[in-house]
Hints:
Layout: H1 2-39, E1 41-45, E2 60-64, H2 67-70, E3 78-82, E4 90-97, E5 102-106, E6 109-112, E7 115-116, E8 143-144, E9 149-153, H3 163-166, E10 169-170, E11 174-183, E12 189-190
Antiparallel strand pairs: 1-2, 2-11, 3-4, 3-11, 4-9, 5-6, 5-8, 6-7, 9-10, 11-12
Amino acid sequence: MNNQQNNKNKQDISKKSRRKKEIMSWVWAIIAVLIIRQFFIQAFVIPSESMKPTLKIHDRLLANKIIYKIRQPHRWEVIIFKYPEDPKKYFVKRLVGLPGETVEIKNGHVYINGVCMQYPDYIKTPLYYYNDEDGDFGVNGETKIPEGAFYTLGDNSINSKDSRYWGFVPEKNLVGKALFIYWPPWRMGTIR
């Protein structure tokens, strides 16, 4: 009987030990996910057609949240930022103008510091239109981008409210660089 009791006690301790290890594994996994989401990578869902054809409605993407703590954003990158007029909302647009530059939209093209910009091959050359009643930043002559701010445009200019309409994105509002579409599977790939 003493042996049976010893075996039972060992089994109980072993079960408790396994349960404790399992719980601790889950706790550490949750902590790791929270840390990764807070500082490194975050998922976003595209709610509109403003970045079509690069990004489509319901695309799910991952963003690198640490990159702009290491280096400055580059022209033509697709960035995620807090909307300047309502920082609770996230926007996804293409970065076109950098701090200190002048920007102008003329005849459907982007001019930076008076030079008509040539788009990289991976961007289907958009024509940037605007509605005179709404847009005023860079559409009625050159506009200087303040230091510590950026100028963004949607790839689908007809359906995009962007820097032409509400102005500049402060550097403090940058969240990260769009990296990868992970859903739907047939659209999976890097974002350029």
